[in-house]
Design a protein that fits this description.
The protein is 39% helix and 19% strand. It is of the alpha+beta class. The strands form five sheets. It has a nine-stranded mixed β-sheet with strand order 24-22-23-25-26-27-28-30-29. An eight-stranded mixed β-sheet has the order 14-21-20-16-17-18-19-15. Strands 9-8-7-6-12-13 form a six-stranded antiparallel β-sheet. A hairpin with a 5-residue loop joins strand 8 and strand 9. Helix 3 runs antiparallel to helix 4, helix 7 packs antiparallel against helix 8 and helix 21 packs parallel to helix 24. It is elongated.
């Protein structure tokens, strides 16, 4: 089919047959044209892939969606591969003409590649360290959690359980053994993390691989030697808590609260397995999701582990040196449970809350006593269990008043020492001695005064009330998560409703609009992470799961501690604007360092002297240059073979415009070749859609211009050599359609501006796209820029992605069904014709608004016809 079409096209253009005096066999010309067209199609496909990759990077820069190094490496690899293929196909279309492009491409890739590599030196030093030798200066060797505990014990003389640490060097040695680290990296690169189900599947595979891996003998020997030394000091065989202390954990804004694993009450025989389980928890679903949402690079997280003597706790909990819901509130908040502090940090059971004021000397402002009907305690063997508590003991305060003040005094001392608010996990041993188990910076809400329930409309229906765990207001449909399987289908923008706010549900905070839970306290791990993610949360709201229905819309006003029925717009209107969730992250810093080599477009004007390979400074420049030259070379083919351009097929139309059509493949009806073609002969689906938009509604003519604006246009026209009809420029070239059955490329000039459209429309939705470029005008630069902004706004209403630079507009739409693509092409065709000379009135707001209204009305009419 294509050979016959090309044969007719060549003959019609006067290229002759095999007996032609030109001496060039038609078969050879057919084969060469067919080969060029094949490479042209592949170039367009690679161009679409490159633009899609660049769009993903631009969206990532805005920071509204979290991303990790896996995304950056995968997207840059795709982009680099696409640009390489574009260059290859242009070389095949025009051999030897643009060889300098490859040098530019390699130069850019040379700049980008090191920025994606991990430059961290592998850690060195001892595999283990006793707590007695650790201070906060050792944070890069043992992680912030253990470094802070060493500081408390060795510098401040604050009681901390004895123990030791498996260092970052031990972790690096474990991953280098038998290529474990490389295997984990390959598993991550090969698997998707899109959606909860994929994340959980990958997490399970990674953790299983680590737990099944052999621990090098030098690590196991070092851990057991430290344990024996500890047992010798204590003159007993202690049971230990094995806790994560990853590099990056417990740092400002990166608490990783509850995202890793702790193994409690572990005996000697299971220490090595517990260590591997803590290391494997680096890849728990919640930890992977946390790193993704916070922009933490996987390679920056080295899993150290702390081994601390287990405390047989009479009571335990968490203390904050300030109110995290409003950091301007200097009151200390203490949550206390009977038994181990795990009940508080996990939000698994009710706990007392004590508020301690510091002004005028430390004093207890309030004590809220919970019905603590259970406690978590150590088994006689290993592990922990829940123990029921009698009614009388359950209603007694977990701490006496003097113990509350003792704790508050120690916490205030830590805030003063570290110079910022602190989050402290504590326990009271069986002899009622205070012991600190963790100390980290407190991440809180805004410093502005807390709003409380002021501003809640009187007619708002209150469904449940509790405490503000994380401030803010949000609305969305209720989604119950009662078991882990429910988390796999949690939707974007849902309100997460829980019985117990367990730390593992932190993996959903990147998708949740808000959280409401029946249990839990302000000091729990999930509350901590919710504040970091700025997700409004109300905890300790009894009955909330029965008060709301699955799928119903609710508003969570965490400032007031309320769950309200429906969307309360009055409260939602006061919400702060969406923030860049990646701001301050190492991953965003990497992307910003890459961007100057990838995204900026310097080659805007094809007629500028700088439009050449040597001026391609970015991947975007190369993509733009190759696309422009590919189109030029396809039209140039006939001229280079001595086939007159005047024999091109002219489109016959009633419109006062001239168009020429080049049929690439089945874009025109079969039949005897003529020097002209009518629109009824066109079979190209996207060209017909574009033409309907161009011709359906007559152009009303140029807008009314005041004398001053008209003189400015005359001056611009006289000063711009591009607008001189006697000079060769892109403004006085012919308008060309290059068509196939499912493809169109339009290069055109209308009035003083020029534009191009390229589109593919077929039954394969994933391949469909439309791209549009618009530049120029006769008015001054300010009004030309205002016009492209107007066109950009109108195209955004049609779902196009927009990029503006001065008076140049680029727009693109991908992946829509054929019917939708045809509709959008009609809009493009209309805008090409009906935005002529609009730049002349763009300094008149009223006239510009009237034109915008007219265009919108015309588009509605066009779509209904």
């Amino acid at each position: 089919m294509i050979r016959a079409l090309i044969s007719r096209l060549l003959a019609a253009l006067g290229w002759g047959d095999a007996s032609s005096s030109r001496g060039v066999a038609v078969e050879e010309l057919q084969a060469e044209f067919q080969a060029r067209y094949h490479h042209f199609k592949l170039l367009l496909s690679a161009n679409s892939e490159a633009l899609e990759a660049m769009t993903l990077l631009e969206e990532a820069l805005h920071g509204q969606t979290p991303f990790g190094m896996h995304f950056l490496r995968a997207t840059l690899t795709r982009l680099s591969s696409s640009v390489s293929r574009i260059i290859h196909h242009l070389e095949a279309i025009a051999p030897g003409k643009y060889t300098a492009l490859l040098h530019q491409f390699q130069s850019i890739r040379h700049e980008v590649s090191p920025l994606l590599a991990s430059n961290a030196e592998p850690p060195s030093g001892p595999l283990t360290l006793p707590l007695s030798s650790i201070s906060r200066n050792d944070v890069d060797r043992v992680g912030a959690k253990m470094a802070n505990l060493g500081e408390l014990r060795n510098r401040l003389d604050i009681p901390v359980p004895d123990g030791f640490t498996a260092t970052a060097a031990a972790y690096a040695a474990f991953l280098s053994h038998d290529g474990l680290g490389g295997e984990l990296d390959r598993m991550i690169q090969a698997r998707s993390m899109d959606g909860p189900e994929a994340l959980h599947s990958l997490s399970s595979s990674l953790q299983e691989r680590i737990i099944m891996a052999e621990l090098p003998s030098e690590i196991s020997d070092a851990i057991m030697a430290e344990y024996e030394a500890l047992a010798s000091r204590l003159a007993s065989a202690p049971r230990l808590a094995v806790r994560s202390s990853a590099l990056g954990e417990d740092e400002p804004g990166l608490s990783f609260a509850g995202q890793y694993r702790s193994e409690l009450n572990v005996g000697r025989d299971n220490l090595l397995l517990a260590y591997k389980e803590v290391v494997a928890a680096k890849y728990s679903p919640q930890a992977m999701s946390y790193r993704l949402n916070k922009g933490v690079r996987d390679e920056d997280v080295l899993m150290c582990a702390g081994f601390l003597c287990m405390v047989q706790a009479a009571a335990g909990g968490v203390a904050y040196s300030r109110n995290p819901a409003s950091m301007s509130d200097t009151a200390m908040v203490v949550n206390a449970a009977l038994g181990l502090p795990k009940s508080v940090v996990d939000g698994a059971a009710p706990s007392d809350m004590y508020v301690v004021k510091r002004k005028g000397g430390l004093h207890i402002q309030s004590m809220t006593i919970a019905d603590k009907n259970m406690r978590q305690v150590c088994r006689e063997g290993e592990g922990i269990f829940r123990q029921e508590v009698g009614a009388e003991e359950a209603m007694r305060p977990a701490l006496a008043e003097e113990e509350i003040l003792e704790l508050a005094e120690l916490v205030l001392r830590l805030e003063q020492y570290f110079g910022r608010p602190q989050d402290v996990e504590w326990a009271l041993d069986q002899d009622r001695r205070m012991v600190f188990l963790q100390c980290r910076p407190l991440y809180g809400g805004p410093r502005a005064p807390f709003r409380g329930d002021k501003g809640v409309p009187a007619n708002a229906q209150r469904l449940a009330s509790g405490v503000c765990a994380s401030p803010g207001v949000a609305a969305g449909p209720v989604v119950f998560v009662k078991k882990d399987a429910d988390a796999l289908s949690f939707p974007e923008g849902g309100v997460l409703v829980l019985g117990h706010p367990l730390p593992r549900f932190a993996s959903l905070l990147g998708r949740a609009a808000a959280v409401a839970a029946e249990q839990g306290a302000i000091t729990g791990h999930l509350a901590n992470v919710a504040r970091e993610f700025q997700v409004p949360a109300v905890f300790g709201a009894p009955g909330v799961m029965g008060a709301v229905r699955e799928g119903e819309e609710v508003t969570v006003d965490a400032d007031a501690g309320l769950v309200l029925r429906g969307r309360v717009e009055r409260l939602l209107e006061s919400r702060p604007k969406a923030r860049n969730v990646m701001e301050g992250s190492s991953v965003l810093a990497v992307l910003r360092s890459i961007t100057p080599h990838v995204l900026p477009l310097h080659l805007v004007d094809p007629d500028a002297p700088e439009f050449k390979p040597a001026w391609c400074k970015t991947f975007h420049d190369i993509t733009r240059f190759c696309h422009e030259k590919a189109v030029v070379e396809m039209f140039r083919f006939g001229r280079e073979q001595n086939f007159p351009e005047r024999r091109a097929r002219q489109l016959v139309t009633d419109a006062p415009m001239q168009f020429w059509v080049l049929d690439l493949d089945d874009g025109l009806a079969d039949g005897e070749w003529k020097p002209t073609v009518h629109i009824s002969d066109v079979r190209s689906i996207p060209m017909l859609a574009l033409w309907r938009g161009m011709s359906a509604i007559p152009w009303p003519g140029p807008p009314r211009v005041n004398p001053r604006g008209f003189l400015a246009v005359l001056y611009e026209a006289s000063a711009n050599p591009e607008l001189d009809p006697s000079m060769a420029s892109s403004y006085n070239t012919r308008n060309y359609f290059m068509v196939a059955r499912s493809f169109v490329s339009l290069q055109s000039r209308f009035g003083f501006h020029f534009s191009s459209v390229e589109a593919l429309v077929s039954d394969r939705r994933s391949e469909n796209y439309a791209s549009f470029r618009f530049k120029g005008g006769a008015a001054d630069a300010g009004r030309r820029t205002a016009r492209v902004r107007l066109i950009g706004q109108l195209l955004e209403e049609q779902d196009f992605r927009i990029r503006l630079r001065e008076d140049c507009l680029e727009a693109r739409l991908d992946g829509r069904p054929a019917a939708e693509m045809e509709k959008r092409l009609m809009a493009l065709g209309y805008l090409i014709i009906h935005t002529r000379q609009l730049d002349m009135i763009m300094n008149n707001p009223n006239e510009a608004a009237a034109q915008r209204t007219r265009i919108r009305s015309d588009l509605d009419q066009l779509f209904q016809s």
